[in-house]
């Protein structure tokens, strides 16, 4: 049994990027391309068997439509090269073909589970955020597609970039109070908890997105009420709060309670009509706390006040899809007496933690720091 387990471990090590790409539901062509890279450009029997036994069979309890696409693409590519397709692949594909699309979607409940694996490279063992296994896997329930679940339940490039940023520079976030606007699936917040942020406040304006985010926290053994234990059995060190925050109705008095050290946002510069509300939220969060008549600071946590709570910076990661929208954002930043700096070159993540993710173009994302003047 031990020999078999060792063999499986070696197998998974050889095809680590293939497995990571499959679990993250990368385009099936990318998954097969990675399998080729492991075998000098060919789809060997070993690669076929790994994709079937480890990947496709793992999808038996969900994500069946994705597994079906992978099988179809894999069989087609082997046949085109006049290779020999494993009988098990034909048999597995026949089972999927006999299952209707409606049955598959009903089983998946219009939601899919993606496992995003942040893979730390050789030589990063001593890095504060590097797990002992050199792999941090985050479980995320997402929309099957944006039409079904909305943009808030999808994983966007800038949230991947911001997550890499947090994991690469843990010293910026450790023991800090962090507030994220438009938290979506909650991936950045989970990374903040991993690097031991003192407090993490996750917000979104959509109630369904907020409910999905809470589920993702629980799936990753994090509790926003500080009642559960994490998977190591130790008390959770990061205090996490999930909050409904529509930008257009958020009041300054409500926001002034939180006094975060760092504000974060991923792909929040997208709708010109939302920008004034977003900037108003950022201004309120970046403003220094005011004093009550008795001299105490107006903050959510008196302990923060006693430590001299003072908001410092907002980090906004964004893909600039529309130049006019981005220029409108810059104009509002200036009008609201804020300073903005492109820090992409300075703070590009130190490690490429998602090397298997061909669909993610890190170079398309820019990182900006925003502060009060």
UniProtKB/TrEMBL annotation:
Name listed for the protein in its UniProt record: Protein-lysine N-methyltransferase EEF2KMT
Signal peptide range in chain numbering: none
SUPFAM superfamilies reported in the protein's UniProt record: S-adenosyl-L-methionine-dependent methyltransferases (SSF53335)
Top-rank lineage group of the source organism: Eukaryota
